[in-house]
């Protein structure tokens, strides 16, 4: 595990004494800005195509629609920068939503207590993932893929496969609030990204996450406690997944063992659109937010224009392919 | 050399399960000297470096730093005792800029936050003192040339303020000119009062730079010689046979010129 990136992407050694030492190409800079340009172009297009698109209400709808994907994408960004991957997030949402619903409805717990329990489940999932990846030394793709199946199984068993309705509406009502006119879910999204941005950009832990993702053995030899760092990363993705599960339980007024099936796919699309490299050690979380918004704007705009949902599916797939292609180009340019 | 050695190994040994990698390794290292460690592949050089830099613990014997017995559980322990290692692979994070690499693991900070201004200012100050020019401390390392990367790796030692520097094959991947420059830098480290352990294959290069030469053979110390009191021929015999009295007709010339 140590020393290799999550997908085993090799960085070819650069020829010593290369001529372009110390300079960046214009192409690299344009690729860097690509996601923002895409966002502006999409917004511009939908704004002139639909009179409803730029209304405040619609923009906030977009924000609320991408809140869960966005929160997960923030976690996935941190994991990828650290050179890891967490594929339990979909199952995490399902299990957490079920746990919250069961705690409130079957155990009669208060909503704040149930939410705390949900967050604790997220911490537990993170610790289990850490145990497999850091303790046992299994590649994080395999470990979290397997854990995800296990977690969804637990969620299915604990509800007998049924969706558990929330009749106590404290959580749904809380998420319906609009402090300063902005939905709670959008606030959560913004706070999560702000905190992650501060941590990654301005803290030692953040710098060490980049270091460990860029060169795990170098970070270890520089005195970075890489195992604790990985554990912290998985606990973070676990907690962010749990926040996604709690939001899902609130907005759907239920806990469902089949919720967020394949959510990892949407999350990865957003993260890759933001240009977060699969090789680890690079990427900026504000670009992930832009990637999340591109997906949100695309879904919302296509719906406003009454585009057939089959074509929307096609558009989403095309965007994913585009994200992967751009990511590969960026990766190759960096490795040269 | 007089006084307490900066670093002292007393009959250290290392076993991996039943496999013995090192036995009975003893040597002293003083401030302001360059000790070259030579040996064929499998002689135990890498194991020794990893012990000194805290990657492996010792199975037998004692390690002392400034007279104080130490037990390294992790690289951070060795770093805390003032031992810095410049690895063959340079241990740089390609995706991060020069300043972040210089201060990786020991960033200036206020509470949990890095002190970016101080990091970039100090990075510029340190690199200004090197002979190798870098375009900027904000350039990611993947854009640098081989010599520039080497300079960053060596500058990390100065950042840490370590007084014991272990260099693992610093010139292995470099051309003739860049090798010369790096060896001059080794001399500079010595003049600055650092104790340098220089691991190498290349006897010619070591001969220009080292004060003493320690030859390893099959996990043991075959001999330690002051360069002034020894000859290339004797060192070659030690490397090949682990014994200075062995007959090496023909072989020594071939090796010495390689």
How are the elements arranged and paired?
The complex is a heterodimer of chains A (336) and B (258).
Chain A: H1 26-49, H2 56-81, H3 89-105, H4 111-136, H5 140-159, E1 164-165, H6 170-176, H7 184-202, H8 204-214, H9 216-221, H10 226-252, E2 254-255, H11 263-273, H12 285-304, H13 309-335
Antiparallel strand pairs in A: 1-2
Chain B: E1 7-16, E2 19-29, E3 34-39, H1 45-52, E4 60-65, E5 68-70, H2 75-80, E6 83-86, H3 98-102, E7 109-110, E8 113-114, H4 116-128, H5 146-160, E9 164-168, H6 176-191, E10 195-200, H7 203-209, E11 212-217, E12 220-226, H8 232-241, H9 251-256
Parallel strand pairs in B: 3-10, 3-11, 6-9, 9-10
Antiparallel strand pairs in B: 1-2, 1-4, 4-5, 7-8, 11-12
How many domain units of chain B?
2
CATH class of the largest domain in chain B: Alpha Beta
Q: CATH architecture of the largest domain in chain B, please?
A: 3-Layer(aba) Sandwich
Cross-sheet strand order for the largest sheet of chain B: 6-9-10-3-11-12
Number of strands of chain A: 2
Structural class by helix and strand composition of chain A: mainly alpha
The shape of chain B is globular
Structural class of chain B: alpha/beta
Mean pLDDT of chain B: 85
- State the oligomer: heterodimer
Tell me which protein chains meet in the greatest interface and how many residues each side has.
Answer: A-B, 38 and 42 residues
Radius of gyration of chain B, CA atoms, in whole angstroms: 19 Å
Work out the strand percent of chain A.
Answer: under 5%
**Estimated radius of gyration of chain A:** 20 Å
Please summarize the sheet with the most strands of chain B: 6 strands, mixed
**Helix fraction of chain A by DSSP (H/I, runs of at least 4):** over 70%
Terminus-to-terminus distance of chain B: 32 Å
Helix and strand element order of chain B: EEEHEEHEHEEHHEHEHEEHH
CATH superfamily of the largest domain in chain B: P-loop containing nucleotide triphosphate hydrolases
Helicity range of the residues of chain B? Answer: 25-40%
Q: What global shape of chain A is seen?
A: globular
């Amino acid at each position: 595990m140590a020393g290799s990136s999550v997908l085993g992407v090799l960085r070819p050694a650069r020829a010593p004494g290369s001529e372009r030492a110390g300079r960046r190409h214009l192409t690299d800079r344009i690729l860097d800005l690509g996601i923002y340009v895409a966002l502006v172009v999409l917004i511009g297009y939908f704004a002139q195509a639909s009179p409803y698109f730029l209304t405040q209400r619609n923009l906030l709808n977009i924000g609320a629609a991408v809140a869960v994907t966005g929160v997960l994408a923030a976690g996935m960004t941190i994991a990828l920068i650290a050179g890891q991957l967490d594929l339990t997030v979909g199952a995490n949402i399902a299990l957490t939503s079920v746990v919250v619903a069961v705690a409130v409805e079957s155990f009669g717990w208060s909503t704040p207590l149930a939410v705390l329990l949900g967050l604790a489940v997220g911490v537990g999932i993170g610790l289990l993932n850490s145990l497999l990846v850091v303790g046992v030394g299994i590649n994080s793709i395999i470990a979290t893929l397997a854990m995800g199946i296990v977690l969804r199984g637990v969620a299915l068993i604990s509800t007998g496969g049924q969706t558990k309705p929330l009749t106590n509406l404290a959580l749904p009502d809380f998420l319906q609030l609009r402090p300063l006119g902005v939905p709670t879910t959008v606030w959560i999204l913004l706070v999560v990204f702000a905190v992650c941005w501060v941590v990654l950009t301005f803290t030692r832990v953040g710098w060490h996450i980049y270091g460990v993702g860029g060169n795990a053995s170098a970070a270890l030899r520089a005195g970075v406690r890489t195992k604790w760092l990985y554990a912290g990363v998985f606990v973070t993705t676990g907690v962010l997944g749990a926040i996604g599960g709690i939001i899902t339980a609130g907005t759907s007024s239920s806990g469902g063992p089949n919720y967020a099936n394949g959510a990892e796919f949407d999350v990865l699309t957003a993260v890759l659109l933001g240009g977060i490299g699969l090789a680890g050690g690079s990427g900026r979380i504000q670009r992930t937010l832009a990637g999340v918004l591109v997906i949100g704007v695309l879904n919302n705009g296509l719906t406003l224009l009454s585009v057939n949902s089959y074509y929307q599916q096609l558009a989403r797939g095309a965007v994913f392919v585009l994200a992967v292609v751009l990511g590969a180009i960026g990766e190759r340019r960096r490795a040269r | 050399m007089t006084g307490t050695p900066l670093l002292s190994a007393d009959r250290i040994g290392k076993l991996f399960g039943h496999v013995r990698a090192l036995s009975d390794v003893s040597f002293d290292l003083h401030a302001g000297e360059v000790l070259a460690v030579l040996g064929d592949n499998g002689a135990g050089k890498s194991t020794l470096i990893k012990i000194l830099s805290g990657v492996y613990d010792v199975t037998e014997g004692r390690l002392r730093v400034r007279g104080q017995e130490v037990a390294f559980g992790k690289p951070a322990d060795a770093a805390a005792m003032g031992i810095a290692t410049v690895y063959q692979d340079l241990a740089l994070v390609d995706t991060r800029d020069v300043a972040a690499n210089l201060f990786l693991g020991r960033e200036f900070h206020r509470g949990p936050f890095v002190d970016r201004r101080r990091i970039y200012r100090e990075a510029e100050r340190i690199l200004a003192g090197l002979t190798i020019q870098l375009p900027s401390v904000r350039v990611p390392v993947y854009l640098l040339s081989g010599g520039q990367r080497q300079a960053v790796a060596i500058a990390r030692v100065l950042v840490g303020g370590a007084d014991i520097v272990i260099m693992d094959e610093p010139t292995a991947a470099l051309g003739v000119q860049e090798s010369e420059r790096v060896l001059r830098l080794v001399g500079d480290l010595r003049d600055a009062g650092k104790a340098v352990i220089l691991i190498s294959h290349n006897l010619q290069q070591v001969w220009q730079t080292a004060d003493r030469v320690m030859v390893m053979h099959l996990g043991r110390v075959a001999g330690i010689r002051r360069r002034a009191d020894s000859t290339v021929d004797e060192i070659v015999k030690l490397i090949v046979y682990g014994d200075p009295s062995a007959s090496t007709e023909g072989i020594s010339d071939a090796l010495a010129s390689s």
